[in-house]
Design a protein that fits this description.
The chain is an alpha+beta fold. It is built from 17 helices and 22 strands. The protein has helices spanning 47-59, 93-110, 115-119, 128-140, 192-196, 208-211, 273-279, 342-365, 371-377, 413-416, 492-498, 501-521, 530-539, 557-563, 582-596, 616-624, 652-667, and strands at residues 3-5, 25-26, 34-43, 63-66, 145-148, 151-159, 162-170, 176-186, 201-202, 221-222, 227-228, 247-250, 256-257, 307-312, 316-321, 382-383, 404-405, 431-435, 439-441, 459-462, 467-470, 482-483. Strands 1, 2, 3, 4, 5, 6, 7, 8 and 22 form a nine-stranded mixed β-sheet that branches. Strands 12-15-14 form a three-stranded antiparallel β-sheet, with no helix packed on it.
Length: 669
């Protein structure tokens, strides 16, 4: 008898249906429900879900990707027109492929030296419609991916603790359908799959004491001075950072959809607190100007500053709702969202939509706002050529944080920040990607600090160092057959840096590859061989370990990436062209010996008479013991930067290459 988990989510409004099914049959246990069968099922048409589907398909698996909406792409196609990434060298893989295709689109359409190509900033900035076009093209290139649009998740069925199939409702036809797969990927912003399956999860903020995080719990934080303010208790609660819509706007009169009347439910009293913000200079210039953060001098000290504008191609702007004024009205409107049924979620969508449109109308039309400021606001409108099936308004609410999985490991603030005298963040042996974005949480409650500088819970762009993310945060504690790339296992503070679409795209790529390995090797997600997974990710240009002094042009790049997850380096400097010291040689050989489980590796006695460095011949002789006599030889030419005498000092990058090649030959063969 199969164990079922029948927690249900009721239907959203009917939307337009997408592509067809792979396999259909009548399910004897569920009456008239149709069952679709595939190798891997990805639930959630988010950027992470798209990349998971592509990665799994390229590995050879058949994939069904379900989307709650009639569009793919989540926030990246719904107003978030710039990539939230501070260090472009830290995230690559399929995300980099996406940006390259965006850039190529603008080059092909407007010319290499055009203003639009400059504004797209190497493909990292884009119009929502262009992002959707690129995602659709990437999906279309994979012949073994099927998309099911407007699929509403309703139930999960488990067998011996493993998800066997999921129940959906087709919002166009009203039909109930099952989706059966060997592995499921929960790529939803809300963590709906793992919640239905009965996995443990977190909701809200941990207290400061739970993990010893400095920025945890109830907090007042000065975003300008980057310091704590009086009044924070550090206590945890079930509150969430505010949700908003991310807008696309234009200053092109020919492409402007003008709000000629207030939206349904308009109430100007919701915005009146902004007048106090204007008076008390909370709508003034920031202390530090930074490109791409939405700063325009003519907006400062005007009501237009309730928004943050970033220029993207074709006279359009990525427009965020500025969370720094005390009048910010969105806080608390989302508290009920994660655990609500779809009827209630739909009402929350509508409330946020009305609140957003109301704010635009208020800034453009309220008679109490000075006329010159209203005229400035009237320069910007929703574009006629975006979101054409939704009255030019984004279709995806910005779900900044909802449920978070309780996984095999919980990533915390302490893992993503430098601690004590450490020169790099936590090194994880099972690292699958690098994160890099600042800690950035929107306000959590409407309570202002005593000095009226900030709303409670807002942690604005607190800069950190690049950090490693372990595979274990994607793996549920108990539920089998499931991997979670979006609502992963982190604390609230750590999630505020992980929750960026470029990083989620990379983690989605990991999830797709891991799901394929799980079914190919017939092992559970938790037992996927991480060393093999890491090797595949490196070959597909994922960045596992960030360094300041090496890039992909270096011959040792891949090897350094790999050994960076195993403890070879204690800083962000790989120093590949420097001589290998005896101290590091002993450390690295010890790590290599542990991974290969080879007792024959010993420190060569010749080193005792060679000073502080290691000759090429000694390293080669030591590593050759890994091979059985007469089996193979380790060819120095393949791991040297340039051929030279055996008694020459070996360089750090060369040692990494030699050990990586030997590891691949012996462990992955």
């Amino acid at each position: 008898m199969k164990r079922r988990n029948f927690i249900r989510i009721s239907a959203l409004s009917t939307l337009i249906s997408g592509s067809g099914l792979t396999v259909s049959c009548m399910d004897q246990n569920s009456g008239s429900k149709i069952e679709d069968i595939t190798d891997i099922a990805v639930v959630g048409g988010t950027p992470a879900g798209i990349m998971a589907a592509i990665a799994a398909a390229r590995m050879g698996s058949n994939v069904i990707l379900t989307a709650y909406h009639s569009h793919l792409g989540g926030m990246s196609t719904s107003g978030l027109g710039k990539s939230d990434i501070e260090n472009k060298e830290a995230i690559a893989g399929l995300f980099k492929e996406f940006t390259e295709k965006v850039l190529q689109y603008y080059i092909d359409k407007y010319g290499e030296n055009s203003d639009n190509v400059k504004r797209c900033k190497e493909g990292y900035y884009y119009e929502p419609s262009v992002a959707e076009l690129v995602f659709n093209q990437m999906i279309a290139e994979e012949k073994n991916i099927k998309i099911l649009f407007n699929y509403q998740l309703e139930e999960a069925e488990l067998n011996s603790g493993k998800i066997s199939r999921l129940g959906f409702k087709d919002r166009k036809t009203g039909e109930n359908k099952f989706l059966k797969a060997e592995v499921f990927i929960d790529a939803t912003y809300e963590g709906d799959v793992f919640a239905l399956a009965g996995a443990g999860y977190r909701l809200g903020r941990e207290g400061k004491e739970e993990f010893g995080e400095k920025h945890a719990g109830h907090i007042f934080f000065d975003f300008n001075e980057k310091k704590f303010l009086e009044g924070g208790t550090g206590e945890g609660d079930d509150r969430l950072p505010a949700y908003t819509y991310r807008l696309c706007m234009t200053d092109d009169p020919e492409n402007s959809y003008v709000l000629s009347e207030p939206p349904s439910g308009y109430d100007r009293s919701k915005y009146l607190a902004y007048f106090k913000d204007l008076e008390e200079k909370r709508l003034s210039a920031p202390k530090v100007f930074k490109e791409g953060h939405g700063y325009y001098a003519d907006h400062f000290d005007t009501m237009v500053r309730v928004f943050s504008f970033t220029e993207i191609p074709n006279r359009k702007y990525d427009v965020n709702i500025n969370p720094r004024p005390l009048g910010f009205p969105f806080v608390g409107e989302n508290y009920a969202y994660p655990e609500s049924n779809w009827d209630t979620r739909e009402r929350i969508f509508q409330q946020h939509r009305e609140l957003t449109l109301g704010l635009i109308y208020f800034v453009q039309n309220d008679p109490e706002i000075p006329e010159e400021q209203r005229n400035l606001a009237m320069k910007y409108h929703l574009p006629k050529d975006e979101f054409t099936d939704n009255d030019h308004f984004p279709w995806q609410l910005y779900i900044r944080e909802a449920r978070r999985l309780k996984g095999k490991y919980t990533l915390t603030e302490n893992d993503v920040t430098l601690n004590g005298q450490a020169q790099r963040t936590t090194v994880f042996e099972d690292t699958i990607i690098t994160g890099e974005f600042p800690i950035d949480s929107f306000p959590v409650s409407k309570i202002p600090s005593k000095d009226n500088k900030v709303l409670e819970g807002y942690i604005g762009m607190y800069e950190i160092s690049p950090y490693q993310i372990p595979y274990r945060i994607l793996v549920p504690e108990k539920v089998l057959g499931l991997i979670v790339p979006v609502a992963a296992s982190t604390t609230h503070v750590a999630y505020s840096t992980v929750r960026m679409e470029p990083l989620w795209m990379g983690i989605g790529q990991v999830a797709g590859i891991a799901a394929h390995l799980s079914r190919k090797l017939q092992v559970e997600i938790k037992d996927v061989p991480v060393l093999q997974l890491q090797d595949i990710l490196i070959k597909r240009h994922q960045i596992l370990t960030y360094f300041k002094d090496i890039d992909r042009s270096d011959k040792a790049f891949d090897a350094v990436q790999f050994w960076g997850t195993k403890g070879f380096f204690d800083s962000y400097l790989a120093k590949p062209q420097e001589n290998l010291s005896i101290e590091d040689y002993k450390l690295w050989l010890g790590i290599f010996k542990d991974i290969t489980k080879n007792p024959e590796i010993i420190i060569n006695a010749e080193l005792n008479n060679h000073g502080q460095t290691v000759p090429i011949s000694v390293l080669q002789k030591t590593l050759q013991t890994v091979y059985k006599p007469g089996e193979k030889t380790l060819q120095a030419e393949s791991w040297l930067y340039e051929k030279r005498a055996p008694e020459s000092d070996v360089l750090r990058g060369e040692a990494c290459m030699a050990m990586y090649q030997l590891y691949q030959a012996t462990e992955l063969s």
